[in-house]
Specification:
The protein is of the alpha+beta class. It is built from nine helices and 17 strands. β10 and β11 (178-181) form a beta hairpin.
Length: 364
């Protein structure tokens, strides 16, 4: 039986961290939890203006390596309140209107959380006209009911245009090895890079470079946190972790999405933004350490913070290690525990092979 690298303390932190809400633009509470957990394993911390959090090992080293995940989760904004107290919304990130009907929500106000539900007409009242297609959820027709009869009642609760809305769905484990929660994309990334720092500390490993453990904000609205923090750190190397699609569930075309599956290992990305020599170091490390991994071709862009790091500061050698995920941008995102552990192990072992030199020059 293989020995797990996750312990009770780390799993307890994972549950707290995933259950906490960190919508894009409002990540501070989650960042505080993350920093409190990481604090014993790094030498120093700093944060930037918008809330990206960075733990640093060897802060005085000239050569700088980043390992990165992003902290934010998709959500909604209050956009319009009707005279009879119904709330219409707009996206904050890539929120999926298809899953909204009948979901419970938390509306975040200065007075605290206001509970509500995404209402939807009963099946008995829909599609009664002969030949008329059934109405489907759209941004313009989904609405929240928080039990009020008037706009004034809604506003008295503290709800106003611009309040952010999240789902309260919490962490569960299915069949002993499937982690399920909303916002695994990509707070699981923040968890995994924190575990890398923990392993380095507990195993007494020393690095010849400065390691910047970066939990970025605002990825879900255009990689904005990574764009800002890479200019601050000016790293030489960046290893980014995010999620990608498990294509082995129903209704997904492998000819488009590739053939990726949870439980089969972390996914190494191929794209112009991914620096060839760094990627080969990662795959060589996986093979040498017998860490299972998969490959994913991403065409023009990765769509992750890798793009922001790679094309900054005159070019930063960057690579992407993704966690295969089922049901992205729903409240039941699912990953396999083995993939989480193997991603942590792959980043950890790769760091031990990075030298403080020009290893990642394209023309080495």
């Amino acid at each position: 039986m293989k020995t797990s690298i996750l312990n009770q303390e780390s799993l307890a932190f994972l549950e707290r961290y995933l259950n906490n809400t960190s919508p894009t633009g409002y990540e501070s509470n989650g960042q505080k939890l993350w920093m409190d957990y990481l604090r014993p394993y790094v030498d120093t911390f700093f944060t930037d203006t918008y809330g990206t959090a960075v733990g640093v090992i060897n802060p005085d080293a000239k050569y700088k390596v980043v390992i990165e995940g992003h902290a934010d989760e998709i959500s909604w904004y209050v956009n319009y309140i009707t005279d009879d107290g119904f709330i219409y919304v707009i996206r904050n990130g890539g929120s999926d209107q298809m899953i909204a009907p009948s979901k419970r929500v938390d509306i975040h106000t200065k007075k605290g959380i206001v509970k509500g539900v995404f209402g939807w007409p009963a099946i008995h009242t829909r599609n009664r006209a002969v030949g008329k297609p059934e109405e489907t959820p759209k941004i313009e027709n989904i609405f929240i009911d928080c039990g009020c009869s008037t706009k004034a009642e809604v506003e008295a609760l503290g709800v106003h245009v611009g309040c952010v809305i999240t789902y309260p769905d919490e962490f569960i484990i299915l069949n002993d090895n499937k982690f399920v929660c909303r916002a695994i994309d990509n707070r699981m990334g923040g968890f995994m890079i924190a575990e890398v720092a923990r392993l380095l500390k507990e195993n007494g490993k020393t690095l010849d470079f400065g390691l910047y453990v970066v939990n970025s904000v605002q990825e879900e609205v255009g990689l904005r946190g990574a764009e800002m923090i890479t200019q601050t750190i000016k790293p030489n190397v960046a290893i980014v972790t995010d999620v990608c699609h498990d294509s082995n569930t129903p209704m997904i075309d492998k000819k488009i999405e590739g053939d990726l599956k949870i439980g089969h290992g972390p996914v190494v990305g191929y794209a112009p933004a991914i620096q060839n020599n760094l990627r080969e170091l990662i795959t060589d490390t996986a093979e040498a350490m017998e860490i299972p991994f998969q490959r994913n071709a991403l065409s023009r862009v990765t769509g992750t913070d890798t793009d922001a790091f790679a094309y900054s500061n005159g070019g930063v050698a960057s690579a992407l290690i993704s966690l295969p995920l089922r049901y992205m941008h729903t409240t039941v995102e699912m990953v396999h525990r083995d993939d989480v552990e193997n991603t942590i192990k792959l980043i950890y072992e790769t760091l031990l092979r990075i030298e403080n030199n020009e290893t990642f020059s394209y023309f080495k």
